[in-house]
Every structure is written in C-alpha cells, then in structure tokens.
Specification:
This protein is an alpha+beta fold and 622 residues long. Helix content is 40%, strand content 25%. Strand 20 and strand 21 form a beta hairpin. The longest helix has 38 residues. It binds adenosine-5'-diphosphate and magnesium ion. The site of magnesium ion has 6 residues, from loops.
Length: 622
C-alpha cells in the first residue's frame, strides 16, 4: 500500500524581525541569517531605498529611487529629507522650509504638515510610506515572508519627540517597534566590537543630513555610551550645498536671477552638486555639470578636490569640534580611544577620513560598507531581542538633560545628559504657599538654563496634597527612563502617599487620538489610556478618603459598635492594598466599599458636630 507523503509546514518562522536604518537620505533593511547580519536587497541591487516620496497627480505616492528621479521633473511634489521634520514644530523647521518648493502648515498642536497636491501630510505619514517600501523590499527578498517587527535606528541626538514620531511612523506602517536604537550604537554592534574585553570606541557618523559622534566604552563584552555629541544639521547635503552655491554664483550673473528661483533649477543644481562630490571621492578632479532643458541651460565647470575641500573646511571644523566635546564629556583624551568606526556615506570623502584619522591618531574601521553598518547593527539588535544568542548587555545614554521647571522659570535638572539608561532619579519639592493642595509639574529636555529655551515634554498635576503650612509637604518627583528611552515621571506626597504620574507625551508627537484616527483602529490603546487615567484618579480619591478616615479613627473606636468598627478597619486595609496596584476594577470596588464602611462614622461625626454646635450655642447663650 503506497504511503501518501505529507508536507508538514513549519510555521514557527513567520514572525520575522528586521533591523531598519531609517535615514535622512537613504534607508536600508537587514536581517540576521546564518550567524551574521545581512542586508536585504532585491536580486542584483543595493537595497538602498532613497528616503524620498513623490506624490503623483493620480494614484498612490511613489517611494525610493523612482521618487528621487522625479525630483527634477516635478520638484513641487517630491519630498526629500523628511527625517528633518520628524517630531518638530513649524517654528523649528522654518529655515528648513525656506529652501523647499512646497508649502507647510501646522495643526493646532504645532505639528508640521506638508502640503502636496492639496493634501496635507505629516512627516510621520511620509516616513510611514518609506517604511512600507522598506518592508516590501525585505518581504520580497525573503520570498514573500511577512515582516512585522523591527528595530529602527535614530540619530543619537534625536529628542523624545523625534523618537516618538519615529515610533508613530512605524505604527502607521504596520510595524511593531521592538526598540528604537541609536545609530552609533548599532554601528558598533555591526563591527562586533562587543567581543573586545576592554576598550574605548569612537563612532563617527556623517550621513546626508546629520552628524553624530559617540564615545563608547566596552568592558567584559558590555557596551556603555560614555558621551554623544553631534549636529542635526551637518552632513553630505551641506557639502552638496557648497558646490551648489558655487554653481549659482557663476550661473546667476549669466542666466539671470529668475533662473536661480526656478524650482526645477534648484533641484537640478542639488543633484549635479552631489554627483560632482561623489566623483571627487574617487578622483582628484570632476565636472560640476548642470542641464535643465526647460531653461535651455547646459553649464559645466571643472572642480578640483582641493577647491572642494576648501569650500567645506568650516563644516569639517564643526564636526571635529563636536568630536572634541564628545571626548571631553567622556573624560578621555584622543589617545585613549582604541577603535574608531566610520558610518554614513559622507565618510567616504577622503578629507573626512584624513581629518578623523589625524584627530584620533589612528586608522578608522572601514571594513564594512559605511552605508550598511547601521542597518546591519540594527539586525544584530533585532536578533538579540527576539531571543537570539549573542551574550551582551546593551546600554545607551540620554542625549539631553531632563528636568523640571522651577518657580522662576529656571530648570532643575533631574537626569543629566549622557546618563546611561535605563536610569532613575528622584528629587524633592515642597509647597510654596500655605494650604496649597496641588502642584503643577512642567517637564523639559535640554541643556539651557531657562525652561522656555528647552523643549517642553509635558505637564502634569499632583492633586490632593493635604492643606498644611508652606514648605511642610514632602513631594518626591521620580524620573524613570526605561531601556527604550521612554520617560515616566511620577510625583508622590510622602506623608499621605498621594501620587500622580505621566508617561511623557512629546509636544510634537502624535497624540494617541491622532494615531487612532489615522489607523481607524486602536481601540485597545484608547482603552488602556482610559483605564490608566481612571486608576490614577481613583487612587487619589482613595488616598483622600483614607486620610480623612484615619484622622477620625479614634472617635470611631469610641463611638461605633465593635462589628461596624471592624468592618471599617477591613475596608481601610483593603483600600490601602488596592491603592498599591493599578487595577481599575479593584480600585473602584475598594473605593465603593470604603465609602459604604465610613457611612456610620460620618453619621457619628455629624452627630458630634451637631452636638458641639448645639453646645456652642448654649454656651453662647449664657
Ligand atoms: P543618511 O544616514 O543621512 O541617510 P547616508 O549614510 O546614506 O545618509 O549618506 C548619504 C550621504 O552620503 C549623501 O550626502 C551622499 O551624497 C553621500 N555619499 C554617498 N556616497 C558617497 C561618496 N562616494 N562620496 C561622497 N559622498 C557620498
Ligand atoms: Mg545614516
């Protein structure tokens, strides 16, 4: 009898986790395979997805190479460098917008929106389109396997709002974010520098739009970021701009100022400048060549590497100044740095390599493709987070100090910049007015002295502080940053145990409501939030009730019958127990029970008060 062969499908590997470098200029995806990270790419192509979105007159937006090709033809509907807008307000990006051929508005909450063909797009939505494209590339390279989870990298200098915007973009793209990781940290993982016993590493990342330098310490396979520094507005785009300036200064007088205003010219000059710069990496001279048929423009000029280097000298100086500050923050001398890692396409430029080598006094690592290093490291991290083995602990630092606005508008720093996370710190406050029952907390991020100069992260209130003379309340405010870099701030009045807390919602991030609207699903989230708020409110209420009841326990002991008194005691201890947890249903039950159990006491007290009042009147009558 013949056997029927059964193909048993192994379904365990469907949930693929990838690492994504969501770059200002280019994005890339990688995965852990056969014991090492590999870039995912379509057959015979690089896998680099230009972070560019083109909105056609009809149909869905186009992302990547095809979008970038539209830049000259249709610049008004082609968006570059979306990452620069992530998590920012309109005021933050005004100078950025000046050079762009499309208009921008903001929502009531200050969220930037770019207008393309009459439709408004938030940077989160545009980044989500890029992430979807990246996910499709990964999915295709994996033979159709769905990709649902990702580690996504961000510049070390990204603040909370920008990190949150990145999470929101991933959420919109249907990706679960396993972790947001700093790009320099990912790069050092890609080089496997964790395998070293001991040493200091400098990661120099010069991309298209951002510059980061990080100093890491490795000890017994454990990574620690000692310091980060950088410039969110320094990169290869600025090199291009210097060559574009050169072209404009020579074309303007000949072709007329009107030409310089033409959006088609502006995009063409940018692309020509980049082409020239990249050629200068490989050879000592190159053509800066510009063709714009609509303007009957065909312009060419020879540029030497020396001339180019002269034009970007101040930009390099800025980068090296950042390196100097990073070293000083890490309390290290250049000679104490054992390894230097180069990341980002712009570190291919010979003068950049030369300056880095001279500064640190050693040859930097260039074995891996600087375009791929970050994505490869993100894949290593994704592998570790999904249970893969590579024994190491990964620590990061807070890029900016976190603090609280004080009475005079100054900032009380609670967690200093470059503190290794996860971390927590507690500071004590008190009331400034007699019988003050509430305190407002304004959480800010930044290095400036005044709160108004820092980035506002959020506000919250602690209510229900018992009335007492100014300066007597003891309020402990605790900042806690988890391994993902999410900040939670809580405040507690110590004599009563009244507490309040928030998970910091960055000002320019999307609210849960906005994300919900975009996803048209998200009920789970909304419910969680509602439950959390309800639990927090109930805790405060229970705290107030307990405080009032305990004050009169003595009277209760004397005035209530034994059974009623025991019932009250039970309700009090159950309420205390419930207030230690976050279970909304249990809290509600405990609150209701406490209310019921205190009714006889309330009646007793009322009687006492009435009696006293009567007595008072009597005395008064005498
Ligand atoms: P990002 O991290 O900002 O997305 P990348 O790391 O992809 O940026 O780097 C993009 C930058 O690298 C662009 O400015 C590009 O012009 C530049 N670049 C790429 N290749 C070269 C090269 N061979 N020579 C000089 N610059 C290069
Ligand atoms: Mg990069």
């Amino acid at each position: 009898m013949p056997y029927i062969e059964l193909n048993v499908l192994n379904n365990t590997a469907t949930d693929v986790a990838v690492g994504i470098d969501l770059g200002t200029t280019n994005s890339l995806v990688a995965i852990w395979r056969d014991g090492r990270p590999v870039v995912l790419a379509p057959e015979g192509r690089s896998g680099l997805v230009p972070s560019v979105v083109y909105v056609p007159s009809e149909g869905t937006p186009v992302v990547g190479r095809e979008a970038r090709d539209q830049a000259v033809v249709d610049p008004r509907h082609t968006v570059f460098s979306i990452k620069r807008f992530m998590g920012r307000g309109l005021a933050d990006v005004r100078s950025e917008l000046a050079a762009r051929p499309y208009s921008a508005t903001q929502t009531e909450r200050g969220l930037v929106q770019l207008e393309l063909r009459g439709r408004k797009y938030t940077p989160q939505e545009l980044s989500a389109l890029i992430l979807m494209k990246v996910r499709d590339v990964a999915c295709a390279a994996l033979g159709g396997q769905p990709v649902t989870r990702a580690v996504i990298t961000v510049p070390a200098y990204f603040d909370d709002a920008q990190r949150q915007a990145t999470r929101d973009a991933a959420h919109l793209a249907g990706l679960e974010v396993l972790r947001i990781v700093n790009e320099p940290t990912a790069a050092s993982l890609a080089y496997g520098l964790d395998q070293r016993d001991k040493g200091n590493v400098a990661v120099f990342d010069l991309g298209g739009g951002t510059f980061d330098v990080s100093i890491l310490a490795i000890e017994d396979g454990v990574f620690r970021v000692l310091s980060t520094n950088g410039d969110t507005h320094l990169g290869g785009d600025d090199f291009d701009e210097r060559l574009a300036e050169l072209a404009r200064s020579e074309i303007g007088p000949v072709a007329g100022a009107r030409v310089l205003e033409d959006p088609g010219f502006q995009q063409a000059v940018r692309l020509a400048a980049e082409r020239c710069k990249i050629e200068l990496t490989a050879q000592p001279e190159a053509d800066l060549h510009l063709v714009v048929p609509e303007l009957r423009l065909n312009w060419r000029r020879r540029v030497t590497r020396e001339e180019f280097e002269g034009r970007v000298a101040d930009l390099l100086q800025r980068a090296m100044d950042c390196c100097r500050r990073a070293l000083s923050d890490a309390h290290l001398k250049a000679a104490q740095v054992d390894e230097v890692v180069l990341v980002g396409g712009s570190t291919r430029v010979p003068i950049v390599r030369a300056r880095v080598e001279a500064f640190f006094g050693r040859k930097p690592h260039t074995e891996l493709d600087p375009d791929q290093v970050v994505a490869l490291g993100a894949a290593v991290q994704a592998h570790i987070l999904t249970g893969g083995k590579r024994d190491m602990l990964l620590m990061d630092v807070t890029p900016l100090s976190l603090g609280i606005e004080t009475m005079g508008g100054a900032v009380d720093k609670v967690i200093q910049r470059n503190t290794t996370i996860p971390c927590a710190a507690t500071v004590g406050y008190t009331t400034y007015a007699d019988n003050q029952t509430g305190l407002d907390f304004h959480i800010v991020q930044g290095e400036r002295e005044l709160a108004k100069d820092c980035r506002s992260l959020g506000r919250f209130q602690l209510k229900g502080v018992p009335p007492m003379p100014a300066g007597l309340a003891r309020i402990a405010v605790r900042f806690h940053i988890d391994a993902d870099g999410v900040l939670r701030v809580s405040a507690k009045e110590e004599s009563t145990g009244k507490s309040a807390q928030i998970d910091v919602q960055p000002m320019h991030g999307l609210t849960d409501l906005e994300v919900e609207g975009m996803l048209k699903a998200g009920f789970a989230h909304a419910r969680d939030d509602f439950q959390a708020r309800r639990a927090a409110d109930l805790k405060i209420e229970i705290g107030t009730m307990l405080h009032a009841t305990e004050k009169h326990l003595h009277a209760a002991h004397g005035g209530l019958d034994k059974e009623t008194y025991r019932d009250l005691e039970d309700a009090i201890s159950r309420a205390r127990e419930a207030a230690r947890q976050d279970d909304g249903t249990a809290l509600q039950k405990a609150r209701d029970e406490l209310e019921r159990a205190t009714l006889p006491l309330a009646a007793l007290l009322m009687n006492n008060v009435a009696q006293k009042a009567l007595m008072g009147r009597k005395l008064g009558d005498v």
